[in-house]
Specification:
Distance between the termini of chain A: 23 Å
Strand content of chain A: under 5%
Oligomer: heterodimer
Structural class of chain A: mainly alpha
Strand order of the largest sheet of chain A: 1-4
Order of helices and strands of chain B: HHHEEHHHHHHHHHHHHHHHHHHHH
Shape of chain B: globular
Radius of gyration of chain B: 27 Å
Largest sheet of chain A: 2 strands, antiparallel
Largest interface: A-B, 59 and 60 residues
Distance between the termini of chain B: 26 Å
Number of strands of chain A: 4
Largest sheet of chain B: 2 strands, antiparallel
Number of strands of chain B: 2
Number of helices of chain B: 23
Helix content of chain A: over 70%
Strand content of chain B: under 5%
Shape of chain A: globular
Order of helices and strands of chain A: HHHHHHEEEHHHHEHHH
Helix content of chain B: over 70%
Chain lengths: 353, 551
């Protein structure tokens, strides 16, 4: 093992290590500098972490869809971000309709449930349609073909929503019950953030139970392990693939509602950047690994919320929040270069499917 | 197969032949509702194709009827030795009827349930278009009548003999094309009914007589001695070349469209090397385009002082290409070990990182932040008093760039390097086992592609005389990808055709701009499902993609 490793060290790897160490040095220097300068009180750090947790749990829900589909089909469902956006849109339409009928605040919990169910059902439907129309005929095609299809489907969905519902940014209604803050264990949190975190955690636990304890969940694991062997064991592989898209789509739909509760904005590009970030989260956690996607999502959310202030500020970069998205992509690139296996998970980035 | 058309099996096929027809009708209805609600019809409603008679929005409506009527007839005749004429015609009419019923339902129901509060395009303009401006009861009958008649006619079109059918089809297609060219480039309005009839007739006659003539010409050409063939081909190319060089003289506006198409061809040729030849899906291709444009901007604009020099565009050009090529190598190194889809995502990440950095306040003193860099000199300013615009002059630079790029691409394709790329694209492990140095081969692909992209970036900077980070978003990469995929991955003439279709047509139809990416997305999916080798496929790739079907 060691010999093999030594032989594999090439010039390019050395270059990459140098880049890696430079970046790591930058991160440490920036952090130390910021903390030493004491520019921000602990209260702000805490707020940033809580916000990061909230946005990270949304990423985690979306990342699950990427990771499950990748586990089974070995393809990046590039259009998954648009499934998420569809959920946000339907959630918005149901919420505004309820709001107009003055039911949103009067029956808070039933209306929230209705919003979630509507969004999850729509997103799951779109995900299944995508699989049926765009991906299924290409299962045996060369690998780039389904990826290009997925990119096409992603743009098709984005601009379909734009055509249907307009290009304006729609503001998501905020019921009375979600305004203000609550105090938990001495920490003050915005109510919306608390709702997002609680709802996401419930769904994550439900999914873990589904995947590990139910018959269908185990069948999913078997299919992702080896499709042909699973088929020989009497598992209907097509059905399991559809179920995977349903579950992934439903989670993305719920994430769409949570995302719009958090940021109170919906428009046709809503899904794009969060989709890429959720993919980053899936890679961070080790793609194909369900628990990894959850961890990756939370980690990315917190990192994205903390790093601009913690690192870039210390490096003397003005307006660091502008580079928030660049940081997320940089993390994706770095993880794929230095640890393609992610936090948990097997090495897939360089392996051929 | 003929046995099924007589006797007992008739009853079985009687019941089963309704369900495919209904399916086609329902699909057509859904497509028609989609096209109506997504807003394409209304967006194109103000563009008259035949003045006073029919708008482009209505052409879209009609083409849905035609397409599904034709499909229904095709389905009705499937697996029959001789198409059952009456049943084909009925099928076409029924498909048209179902589609028009869907649309009528939309027109009736939408105002009642206030559909517009959700679907912004369910507007009175749409209903006016669908009812041909006649209001609810009369217009609906008209819509249904048109649906049935057009469905019937298109089924009739299907029943025509091959040669005549192609000719009629070409005549029909010629009307909107000529009208759009006329209204976009010259007159600003559509053609009159008489002119339309003329265009239809000319298109029909030319296609009808061209088909046998083409076969004869081909035969005569291949019967010639090789020497003579070569001479003839050269003459044809020279005439074509002169034609291309005369194109910008059509006027400043056509020249601007040609410039845009040309830039996409140039970028497409570069990306074609990376994706088509080497099989590396690069979604961050726009980054090199941006680097080329910014290098020129920084070196030439008087606004940028820190660099200490101020070059002309021509002096800055080599630097732009060098910077782009180096960036291709530098960004290529980290992704050497990645394959397929991961490579796509990481390069996409690189592209976004570069754009965000150019956009941020961090580098604002160096590259202008969101204000960009302006006052970039033009490559060849139009000579004073010549009556030519700068855009017209620029066209010649772009053509020169395309020639250089096409030359590089063709020479590389059949070189040792090009064959290494092909081998690597097919199977990296086998290629490596055959002694191909993967690192060098990949980096060469990235570097060549990036260099060409930077070249087009440099020309782009001179076209706009300014660079802004907003010009370099991911959508540019996607556009170029769509161009080369539609044309045919790895095929050099394909890039040109792809750019003309995907960039040229939307440029002519400005009101269509909003739907450009919608169509690109649909086109990508459609091409991958139905014709992954593209419109003008490269021979080897076609073989590869269809070998799988036969196996």
């Amino acid at each position: 093992m060691y010999k093999k490793f030594r032989r594999r060290v090439t010039g390019t790897q050395i270059v990459m290590w140098i880049i890696g160490f430079l970046l790591l040095g930058g991160v440490i220097y920036g952090t130390v500098h910021t903390l030493a300068a004491g520019a921000y009180p602990p209260r702000i750090w805490l707020d940033l972490i809580v916000f990061g947790l909230a946005q990270g749990s949304v990423y985690a829900l979306v990342a699950l869809g990427y990771t499950m589909v990748y586990g089974i089909l070995r393809m990046i469902n590039f259009a998954h971000g648009e499934v998420f956006m569809a959920g946000a849109f339907i959630g918005y339409f149901i919420a505004t309709a309820l709001n107009r009928a003055e039911l949103l605040e009067r029956y808070f919990i039933p209306s929230q449930l209705l919003i979630f169910i509507g969004a999850m059902a729509t997103s799951a439907t779109i995900a299944v349609l995508l699989e049926r129309i765009a991906y299924r005929p290409l299962r045996r095609a060369p690998r780039l073909v389904p990826l290009i299809t997925a990119i096409g489907a992603s743009f098709f969905l984005q601009y379909t929503f734009r055509g249907f519902f307009g290009s304006g940014i729609k503001s998501y209604p905020e019921p009375q019950q979600l305004k203000g803050t609550i105090t938990l264990l001495g920490i003050t949190i915005l109510k919306t953030q608390a709702l997002v975190i609680v709802a996401a955690v419930i769904m994550l636990i439900a999914l873990l139970i589904f995947v590990q304890r139910t018959k269908t969940g185990r069948a999913m694991q078997a299919v992702s392990e080896d499709k042909d062997a699973a088929a020989l064991m009497g598992i209907n592989v097509d059905r399991i693939i559809v179920i995977t898209f349903v579950v992934g789509g439903a989670l993305a739909g719920a994430a769409g509602v949570l995302f719009s509760t958090l940021f109170r904005q919906v428009f046709f590009l809503t899904g794009f950047i969060p989709g890429l970030k959720a993919f980053t989260a899936a890679v961070l956690g080790g793609i194909g690994n369900v628990a990894g996607a959850m961890l990756g999502g939370l980690f990315l959310g917190i990192a994205e919320s903390l790093f601009p202030n913690l690192v870039l500020d210390g490096l003397g970069i003005p307006a660091p929040y502008q580079l928030k998205d660049a940081l997320a992509f940089l993390m994706l690139v770095l993880v794929l270069i230095f640890r393609p296996t992610g936090i948990l998970g097997e090495r897939l980035a360089t392996k051929k499917a | 197969m003929t046995a099924t058309s007589v006797g007992a099996p008739m009853t079985a096929s009687q019941s089963s032949r309704w369900s495919p027809l209904l399916k086609i009708g329902l699909l057509g209805g859904v497509v028609a509702l989609y096209m109506a609600l997504v807003g394409i019809m209304t967006a194109l409603a103000s563009r008259m194709v035949i003045t006073g008679l029919i708008s482009l929005g209505q052409i879209i409506l009609l083409s849905i009827f035609i397409m599904f009527g034709y499909m229904a007839a095709q389905r009705a005749a499937a697996k029959q030795a001789r198409p059952p004429v009456a049943w084909c015609l009925v099928s076409g009419a029924i498909a048209g009827l179902i589609i028009s019923l869907f649309l009528s339902a939309l027109v009736v129901i939408a105002p009642i349930i206030n559909l517009r509060s959700i679907f912004i395009n369910a507007s009175p303009e749409l209903f006016k278009l669908l009812t041909f401006g006649q209001g609810v009861p009369t217009g609906l009958y008209l819509l249904i009548g048109v649906g049935v008649v057009v469905g019937l006619l298109s089924a009739g079109l299907f029943l025509l003999p091959d040669r005549l059918r192609r000719a009629v089809g070409m005549g029909l297609v010629a009307i909107p094309i000529v009208s759009i060219l006329n209204s976009s480039l010259f007159a600003g309005r559509g053609i009159s009914p008489a002119q339309a009839a003329l265009v239809f007739g000319v298109g029909l006659v030319i296609t009808y007589f061209w088909q046998p003539a083409r076969a004869a010409t081909n035969r005569r050409f291949s019967a010639m001695p090789t020497q003579q063939q070569r001479v003839l081909a050269t003459v044809v190319y020279i005439i074509l070349g002169i034609g291309v060089l005369l194109l910008p003289l059509l006027g400043p506006y056509p020249a601007e469209i040609l410039d845009t198409v040309g830039l996409y061809i140039l970028m497409g040729l570069g990306l074609n090397i990376v994706v088509g030849f080497a099989g590396l899906l690069d979604l961050g291709y726009v980054a090199f385009f941006a680097l080329g444009a910014y290098t020129v901007g920084i070196l030439t604009s008087p606004e940028i002082q820190w660099i200490g020099v101020q070059l002309t565009w021509w002096q800055a050009l080599p630097f732009a290409v060098i910077v782009g090529t180096l960036a291709g190598v530098i960004l290529g190194i980290p992704v050497l070990q990645m394959r397929g889809d991961y490579l796509a995502i990481v390069t996409l990440g690189f592209g976004e990182i570069i754009r965000l950095i150019f956009l941020s306040d961090w580098l604002k003193p160096l590259v202008g932040g969101s204000n960009g860099i302006t006052r970039i000199p033009r490559a060849i300013p139009a000579p004073a008093g010549s009556g030519l615009s700068d855009q017209q002059m620029l066209f010649y630079i772009i053509v020169a760039g395309i020639l250089v790029a096409a030359f590089i691409a063709t020479r590389l394709k059949y070189s040792r390097l090009g064959r290494n790329w092909a081998a690597m694209r097919e199977d990296e492990d086998v290629a490596q086992a055959m002694g191909i140095n993967l690192v060098r081969t990949k980096l060469m692909a990235f570097a060549t592609g990036a260099g060409l992209s930077a070249l087009s970036g440099a020309i782009f900077a001179s076209k706009l005389t300014s660079v802004y980070p907003h010009s370099f978003n991911l959508l540019v990469s996607i556009n170029i990808l769509a161009v080369i995929i539609v044309g045919g991955l790895g095929s050099i003439p394909g890039v040109i055709v792809g750019a003309l279709v995907l960039v040229g047509l939307p440029e002519l139809l400005r009101e269509f701009a909003e739907y450009r990416l919608l169509v690109y997305g649909a086109v990508l999916v459609f091409m991958m499902l139905k014709r992954p080798e593209g419109l003008l496929p490269e021979a080897r790739r076609k073989l590869e993609l269809h070998a799988a079907d036969e196996a």
